[in-house]
Each structure stands twice: as structure tokens, then as C-alpha cells.
Amino acid sequence: MARLKDIAEYVGVSISTVSRVIQNDQTRKVNPETKVRVWEAVKELGYVPNQHARNLVKKDQDSRTRTMKIGWVANPKQAETNPYFAEIYTGIYDTLASAQYTLISITKDELENEALLLKTIHDLGIEGLLLIDKIDDRLVHYIQQTIPVVGLDFFYTDKNIAVIDYNRQEAIKMVVQHLVSQGHREIGFIGGGINEGYEDLQAEYRFKGFQAAMEEAGLSIKPEWILNAKWKMEISYEQMTQLIKGSPAQLPTAMVCASDMMAIAAMRAVNENNLTIPEDIAFFGVDNIEMGKYFTPPLSTVEIPKYEMGRLAAKTIIDMVEGTMTLSNKVILPYKLVIRESSQIIRT
Prior knowledge:
The protein has helices at 4-11, 15-22, 32-45, 51-62, 78-81, 83-98, 108-111, 114-123, 137-144, 168-181, 205-216, 233-246, 260-272, 306-321, and strands spanning 69-73, 102-106, 128-131, 149-152, 162-166, 187-191, 226-228, 254-257, 282-284, 301-303, 330-333, 336-338. It is 44% helix and 14% strand. The strands form 3 sheets. Strands 2-1-3-4-5-11 form a 6-stranded parallel sheet, sandwiched between helices. The chain has a 4-stranded parallel sheet with strand order 7-6-8-9, with helices on both faces. Strands 10-12 form a two-stranded antiparallel sheet. The protein has 3 domains: 4-45, no CATH class; 67-166 and 307-334, Rossmann fold (3-Layer(aba) Sandwich); 168-304, Response regulator (Rossmann fold), CATH 3.40.50.
């Protein structure tokens, strides 16, 4: 089997550089292009990090003992504090439990360290991996050489792995089209980016859908009405407050929000500044979380089949682990608009 030295010679870098890439050592920077080449070499040469892992892989090839364990890689706080992820988690848990599998929570840090990666995949006996939190693409491909992987949510929509998702871009286009049909012409957006700091809003699919729908409707996008709340309620609230106080005479008539959580926070800012929803500003969210219909006024939103996403992700990983599915299928689930009092028809 390949060694670190073989990887280094194949790529044309030092052994220490290869080691830093594989161990995700952040103390010294490695050129992104070099990282890509190292992970490609890892895959090409079939490198397994140490002798203990080599022995385990050989043993698995000879005779594998079932553990009935599936790993779940997500931000630990998401399933606890965000209703969107909580319902996905419930769908996963229920489906795995009914098939007598155990769900093991894993953090991305445990995968981005060589020793912990080996412990997770080999010592804990993980048979498959479900991904929501973002991990490095090359690491995903490396893990795929050992166990099946299924991705959920926007980090994995366009990756070469099995994916359970919905079409975020088309969902937001439908929202904008609905608002335009109601008479809205001055429409803003609240969302979050896709990179580690959630800064890159331009690359996020819901914002792309917003841009496309506005262009198709012949409407201009005002930069001051585009708020990157980085998926956080508190930032959405603060930015909406600043927008209202900064230019009270030039506000959008509607705000498209990439999540119900950010919409609810922004709506509170509107209420606290003596504006009326939807008469002054209409709001439309995404996810259809339970609290949205109990807010004042109830929030219009896009219904996403969250529990079904979790259920299908669990079923897919089970089928891959048990060998009844060999292809990396991409399942795109349907969605629908749920119209409530936070949006209205504008009479012109």
C-alpha cells in the first residue's frame, strides 16, 4: 500500500506538506492547488493513513462484522436550536431506529484530524456517513473509498455523492414570481453565504434564484436592500433595524427571506419600528417551521419536506450500506408555497 513518501513523490512536494494536508494542519498554510493534488494522489494511490488502518481495511475486506452504526456529521447546535435541522434529524433517527441502526453524532473536527478520522470510521465501526455540516471535498472523496456517504442541504447539492435535497433556486424564483403577481416591484432579500464565514452570498442558490427571478421580471435589485445575515436571527434583526432607520422613506415593499428564522427576526424589527406587516413591508420565508404560523402576523413561507428529507437520507444510506443501491442517486424533493397574512395583494 502507498506511504506518505509515495504521495509526496507523486505530487512533487515534501512529506511534511503531505502530512499537513492529510491531518488538516492549520498552523502552516498550504496552497489550495497543492491540497487538491495531494487528495487526488491519496485517491489515485489508495493511501490508508497508518498501519493500524491498513490492517483494519484488510480485515474488513476478508470478513466484515456488522455494527449497524451510521454517522451523522452536523453542527451539534443545529439539531437542538434550529427547527429546520431538528425535523430532518427526527426523520433520520426514526428511520434508522426502525431498521435497528444506531445514529452516532460526529463533528467535522473529528473527521479533519487523521487520528480521530481513523477512530471514527474504524474503531467506532461507522458503516455509513450522513453529511450536513461542510467538510472538505477531498476528505469526502477519501472517506467514500471506505464507507458510503450521503449529503443533505446546500453544501452538497452539486457534489458527486448521493444527495437528498430540494431545488432552492427554483423555490425562491417561485416566491418572487408570486410577489410580483401581487403587485410588488421593490423587493429586498435576506440570506446567508455558503463559505465558512457565510460571506459568499452571490454563490448561494436561494440568492441566485432571487436574482434570476428579479431579472426575468425586469426589476432592478438595490444593493442596500440585500442583507447578508449569515443565517443568524440576531444579525437579521440588527440589519433590518439599520435598514429601516437608515432610509425610512425608501424601503422595499416586500422582503424575501432565505429562512423562516431570519424572516421572523426581521419582522420583529419592523414591528418595533412602528411599521405594519404586510401593509408597509410584506415578508416571505422558507422552511415552514412551526413557529412561523404563530407569529404576528403569520408568516408566508415555502413548505420544505424536512422530515421526508431525513427519512430518505436514512433509507438511502441503509440501502448503500446493505448493497441494495450502488449508484449515487440525487433525490430532489418537491416544495410548495404556503400563503399567510405576512404577504398580501397590493392594489395599484
